[in-house]
Amino acid sequence: MSETVSGEELEKINGYAREPLTEDKVFVFRVALCDNDIDRDGEKFSSGALEKLAELFKGRTGIFDHDPKSSKQTARIFDTWVETLPEKTTTDGEIYRRLMAKAYMVRTASNGDLISEIQGGIKKEVSVSCTMGKKLCSVCGADLYKGGCDHEKGGEYGGKLCYHILDEPLDAYEWSFVAVPAQVNAGVTKRFALREKHESTDKSHELALAREAFEKDVLRLSYFCKPFMSAKRVKELAELMTVTELIDFRGRLEKQAAENEEVYKAERESFITGDYKM
Fold it and tell me: Is the pLDDT assigned to residue 64 strictly greater than 60?
């Protein structure tokens, strides 16, 4: 069921609506956008970044597979907060914190199935699209957007694990339902746009970092798609693509992975009920 909407929350929702909405017209749900734990990519948001992102994501639209078409817009965030879980710690020993949001959808005949999937836990993983001002090395504090350092993610230096700290958000664009998450706890696949030009920014280095991130995403998503291609072949194809082509390819793989997830689920159900055919 939709969360009960208080008068204060309905007032916030109506701040984004062109015409006043009543409680029975909206579906409200919570979503974990990102957290401060080290994810599978060896990166984490700083606590300060979570606080800033909480403000930036208010009013941002939820879509599918980062497709900005109006037909793909499904929900809008109307409230955000940073939640602290003192009983839980991150991989690097900090108190666990995550950015939470409340989003609303206007109930229509066309989105009934989507609402059911959200309620049933089928649609729950999301990806955030934002611009970060800094990416810092956990070992020496060097900013990778300004040339970086020689420390490699995952390595240990003097007993200290190397990972990258994402700090000083500049803007937040949207959040998207996706099939394959990267962050373990929040179920979030990070997606970063390139920063706007600053005098101290090495654009070629920044572009190389973006390419590296998209190539990793493409390789990871390819495991969930058919027909199966070897990791070597996928890597070879990715290296031939421009960054723009990689972004497009990544979106298509996300869509295919989501479709295959439904096929696998149907096959499992058929097998359990005895309707599965070899």
Answer: yes
CB 82 within 8 A of CB 100: yes
What is the overall mean pLDDT for the chain? 79
CA distance 75 to 13: 11
Any idea what the Cα angle at residue 67 is, between residues 232 and 266, rounded to 5°?
70
**What's the pTM?**
0.65
Distance (Å, whole) CA 102 – CA 114: 16
User: Could you read off the pLDDT of 184-218 as tens digits, one per residue?
Assistant: 554 434 555 544 444 444 455 556 666 777 777 77
Distance of alpha carbon 91 from alpha carbon 89, whole angstroms: 7
* 67: region left, alpha or beta (phi > 0 left; psi from -120 to 50 alpha): beta
The pLDDT value given to residue 237: 80
* Beta bridge mates, 171: 131
| Residue found by looking up tokens 């666990």 in the block | 96
The number of CA neighbours under 13 Å toward the Cβ of 120 is 7
DSSP code, position 242: -
- In contact, 33 and 56? CB cutoff 8 Å: no
Q: C-alpha distances in angstroms, 14 versus 23, 26, 117, 232?
A: 11, 11, 25, 51
CA 82 – CA 156 distance, rounded (Å)? 30
DSSP H stretches of helix in the chain: 7-14, 47-56, 112-119, 203-222, 231-240, 243-273
